[in-house]
Design a protein that fits this description.
single chain; alpha+beta; Alpha-D-Glucose-1,6-Bisphosphate, Chain A, domain 4; 7-stranded antiparallel beta sheet; 3 helices; 7 strands; 30% helix
Amino acid sequence: MTERRTTTEVPFSAAQMFDLVADIERYPEFLPWCAALRIIIREGDAAKVTLTADMVVAYKVFRERFKSRVLLDRAAGKIDVDYMDGPFRSLQNHWQFTALPDGGSVIHFEIAFEFSNFILQATARTVFDKAFARMSEAFVKRANEVYKSAGK
């Protein structure tokens, strides 16, 4: 199993960061290797939403599609993603957004995954640290683009 955790402080509110990460349909616009994403099912209300999403990830010669269940819990400031179907043996990621007194926030993100295919798993392990850093940076960069241009 490959696992990583990161904590990032940003000048944007926890609500802004929650909204940015929850807007999964926009991931192909800015997230490296996310070739496509569509929401299949949307259930719930404004406080808690459960999505079933289909995502295509492409890296060099690899192109894989997988399905996940995404729980958006606005009141708790958290987003949980659980794997449903595709090339993984398991995949989970969790986001927690915590407000700071200065109006900024702290983003806690963790991911754990294991591919069913040995070759995919071995390839993922060799590039994952770099990929993880690029993905984390992509969300911060997107926040700067969206919220700085809007006057925060």
